[in-house]
Hints:
CATH topology of the largest domain: Alpha-Beta Plaits
Structural class: alpha/beta
Number of helices: 25
Largest sheet: 8 strands, mixed
Mean pLDDT: 86
CATH architecture of the largest domain: 2-Layer Sandwich
Distance between the termini: 77 Å
Strand content: 15-25%
Number of domains: 4
CATH superfamily of the largest domain: Nucleotide cyclase, GGDEF domain
CATH class of the largest domain: Alpha Beta
Number of strands: 14
Radius of gyration: 28 Å
Amino acid sequence: MPSERSADVKFEIGHVLFIDIVGYSKLLINEQSDQIQKLKGIVRGTEQVRLAEAEGKLFRLPTGDGGALVFRTSPEAPVLCAMEIGRELKSHPELHVRMGIHSGPVNEVVDLNEQANIAGAGVNIAQRVMDCGDAGHILLSKRVADDLEQYPRWRPHLHELGECEVKHGQKISIVNLYSDQVGNPETPERLRQAKGQSVLATAESDAVAPRDKAFWVAVLPFKSSGGTEIESFADGLSEDITTGLSRFPYLSVVARAAAARLKGRAGDERKLGAELGARYVVEGSIRKQGSAIRVSARLIDTQTGAQLWAETYDRDLEVSTIFAVQDDVAARIVATVADSYGVLVNSMAAQSEEKDDADLTPAEWLFQYFAYRQQITPSNHAALKKRLEAALERDQRRAEIWSCLAQMYVDAYAFGFQADPTDLDRALDAARRGVEFDRTNQFGLVSLAQTYFFRQDLAAFRPAAERAMALNPLNTDALGILGLLIVHTGEFERGAAIVRHAMELNPDYAGWMHFGPIWEHFHKGEYERALDHANRVDIPGLFWPYLVVAAACGHLGRHAEAEAAARDLLRLDPEFAAHARSNIASWHFASGLLEPLLDGLRKAGLPISSK
């Protein structure tokens, strides 16, 4: 080992770009290797890296999930490099990368393997700046931002975020770098949480926390009777519900620690919720008798005092462990309350009905899309698409609006609304933009996965769908959509199981989810069971339920019912037989059900050609 000679240590200023892959540790081994290789290729291909290497003024410091690039050229070099990387990442939505930049002292050292390495505060602080961000962020230290601000071309892209607390309680001032093309304009989650805690600290001395109450929800400590084990169960259940609600981007959830202060406090839920600054509160109780346990939960609107929802869950601890019960009940409460068909969304959407489009928040735009999903008609589709396009003319940095618009272009293709041959190209562009602006937004990834599916790019669809479902496994709307599309790829058993799980979690599931088991049964030739599910689809004006009835009854030889359903199809679309093949093939290009469905329709009396 070389001797240490502190007198020989020479410091210089290095301009450091630190990069890592968000969620790397949760990937499978082969996925980790694949993503690292892709990221390395992107970094190596940047002009700044090539120029610095040619001049011998670049040092690489690899880490397990990314690495640091130390430029010895100019303060702009790591920033230009980050923007090059950000632009290239638009073509790789599966890579969730964040970056941090700082200029500071660095020095070359020899590590334990007697290899040249680099260390110093410049590297350490660049990593801590990066650690403050989420996927898609390019964060700068204040020092770097001050240097860039001297140049007019950088000023429009610099957005101060304030101080972020990092390792050992140190606070650093950070600046968010983004443009219409690269970066993430959203406030990092770490800073949002810090601001939330600050608001709660203020609430300790104020009667009411100074929040916008319309969208805040708090989970009050569940009351319990039955000893320490049940008290611990109650605490864990409250914590799991809080965590689950936090996964939905349109909800603002009061931190668990703040709500826990109210444990043991008696009083009106309206007053307790107001003390936390929450418009909505989830509260409940737990009782135990023998091995039986009963969990009661309800959702209260603290402004009106209305009970929006209530449910009771009975479980037997001889059949399930207490942890399994906790996981199951928490998941059902969260899914029923919070997803796009949940009671919270319906209540919150009502708050924005009278607002102008220019005043709608990102969450409220999602509510507009969810409302459209309740009644998917050509007129509703055209109206919302026009509003979304106008909203993007005002501000092109809204991830939610891009994602909603992608869905509208997909629906135009999938349902034949105002058909335009460029719909899927426009959907792909919009979906990618939505993911670029917020790589952790599940709704954006669902939009991207659907776009890949209808473009018949199943190699891209599968990883996008898996990533979207992993981001929030309690969002039954996302599970239902993606599970149904997985069914359409021919994975009938797995896709239908995902859809059924979504239906079990939220009893208020949408009627279209029945198509998951419909296609599974049709594939197996279980036409009676397919009919049973088709009769539960409650979407007026949608031709698919009539198609299923006509085809299934045709195969069963029930000619009168088949012909009646065929007449219903023609009432909805008098030209249906002429374009039945293309309509069905847009969904069933990979399921193997195209010809069996067409054959069933022929048996129902529809004149469908064999080509």
